[in-house]
Design brief:
Layout (H helix, E strand, L loop, with lengths): L1 H4 L11 H19 L2 H5 L12 H12 L14 H8 L6 H32 L2 H6 L12 H11 L2 H9 L2 H8 L4 H17 L2 H14 L8 H12 L2 H6 L14 H28 L5 H12 L10 H7 L2 H13 L5 H9 L5 H16 L5 H11 L3 H7 L1 H26 L5 H54 L1
Helix pairs in contact: 2-6, 2-9, 2-10, 4-5, 6-9, 6-11, 9-21, 10-21, 11-12, 11-13, 11-20, 12-13, 12-15, 13-15, 13-19, 13-20, 19-20, 20-21, 20-24, 22-24, 23-24
Length: about 475
Amino acid sequence: MVLSKGIDAGIVDGTDLLMFVGCAVAVAVRYLLYSAGAKTYLEEHLELNNPMTADSRLQEGLFLLDAGASPYAGDTCHIPPLLLFAFLQIYKAPAVVHFSVLVAVDVLTAICLRAIASKYASMNQLAGKGWMEASVKKDDESSPLPSSSSYFDLEQIVSADFVGLSYLLNPFTIASCAAHSLQSVQQLTLASAVCFAAKGYGSLTAAAIALALYLCPFTPVVLVLPCAYLCYCQNVSKAVAENDQSYTRSKSEVLMDRHFWGYLLRFGLLVVALFSSLMFSSVALMGGQLHFLRASFWSWVMVHELTPNVGIFWYIFIEVFDRYRTLFLFAFHAHLFFYPIPLHMRFGRHRPFGPWLHAVATVGMVTIFKPYPTASDFGLMLSMLLIPVELIKEAEKTFAFLLICLEFGLCMFPTMEAVWLSRNAGNANFLYNMTLVVNFFGCLLLTEWLRAGQKMRKRAHATAFCRNIIMDIVDQVGDKHN
């Protein structure tokens, strides 16, 4: 009900034939894999599952909970209580019901992504020609086709439907769903947070971020600033939005809107209040027992589970000496706080496009720097990066090269896993090398995307400056003749 409120009825009607057909195909593929027994083969793949969201851990927790025992007595179940009790309602239902819930979560995430892309496209049209002109580079003499035509072709291809279906039809997303991974629930909270912020629904945005923090502790905290500012910008008056299109010297711009300070404070307090409500509800469901705090939250932050995955945490904390473990934990978690404010100063405060770029980039940061990512998280990151299609055109070949390298690392992950664990022909370094490839090129991909946005902003700024000078000269000439 909350999610449907955040998606306008106009977004899912009329022209949605392509999205409907794509959703039908994606759902059919998922059920085909389910009927073929793909779960048995895929659930053991480390790039698709992690110890925090694996279906085997969920089933163990549900069994203990149904038997009247605490699911957190051992070190097996790490699912938060509210999510665990939600799946308890269908524990004894046929397995296809549980799988259908995961399919529905994927579809809702795709709809959220489509809604974000649609809202961005609408904003792009209202913003005027400045940003569109900045997104069309000068033709390269060595190129057989003009860059402007290729841009508009790309813009027509990467539509809002394309963005949603790029997630739903992503092979890693499909495989993760077939493996019954709960990682898709985390991805839904991240996508819905940006979706609600794009619509200007502050309360729902805060609720989505609080839920994301509940399901994936700590890392999504970096979403607070960009989502709050994006939501704030959607609620400003039309006059203020129009003033954002005019030329203003960078030195004359305020670093942060003074009216936004109060909004950010209220938004942050609301996130804290909603997260506290989720925690108190969890305590009530567990009958006052606090075992779940260590299993579902402390284990995330302290990285107790060191099962290999596509993240960078597991290998480091296997190798690090115990006396340095606290230092590394602090470094790996605290460095996230160095990004939101500089990114806001460099990108986010420049309306109307800056808040969008900051929010999308932050989802990519959460993907890369969370302790227990999966390959499907990078699918969400890629779909998010496709929303400002003009940045893809700006980055061009570099973006394509880095994306290929990222996909190569993800595709080679099962091979390195088999070489180390199945055939015993290698060691942990084989798998960690692919982990470094994935995260290194993931960081470079996000950096290149941000660099393209910065280049476009500077070009739009210079264009507005030149236009302002020309208009002043025209006005002066007109005044003399009058």
